[in-house]
Write a structure and sequence with these properties.
The chain is mainly β. It is built from two helices and nine strands, in the order H-E-E-H-E-E-E-E-E-E-E. The N and C termini lie far apart (about 90 Å).
């Protein structure tokens, strides 16, 4: 008798569920004015990111600046290391994630960094895996 009561309870709960639980509606994740960009892989660093970047206009003129960053289509050079981009993914307007193969000071390593341009394209923010950021300005040509 007890098992009959339990079975009846489960049947009653199933009937109250409203039928199918499969939801075929697309979720509404984009609000007004939201630009959703699907990640896009590139073969080279996009032109907008290329150039010489440094901390200030004064340090742009100093070839020994520790904040100097030179970005080319297929190479990224920091103060004492350089990297070959292995995977370049555009994650949004003016935003890249790059998997690098670095070499410098007798060592080699891989690291993923995020690069983000300001709206006017004159500032570049580089974000490390630990969340630390450095902001550089575009050096005059």
């Amino acid at each position: 008798m007890r098992s009959m009561a339990i079975a009846t309870t489960f049947l009653a709960l199933g009937a109250c569920s409203g039928g199918s639980t499969t939801d075929t509606a697309e979720p509404d994740t984009a609000g007004p004015g939201t630009d959703i960009v699907a990640p896009e892989t590139h073969e080279a660093i996009p032109q907008a990111f290329q150039g010489r970047w440094d901390f200030t206009e004064d340090t742009c003129a100093d070839p020994g600046s520790e904040m100097r960053l030179d970005i080319e289509a297929d190479r990224i050079s920091y103060y004492e290391s350089s990297a070959t981009p292995e995977t370049i993914t555009q994650t949004g307007p003016g935003a890249l994630t790059v998997d690098h193969r670095f070499s410098g000071e007798g060592e080699e390593w891989t690291e993923t960094l995020a690069y983000s341009l300001s709206e006017d394209g004159e500032r570049l923010t580089v974000t490390s895996p630990d969340g630390s950021m450095s902001v550089r300005m575009r050096c005059p040509a």
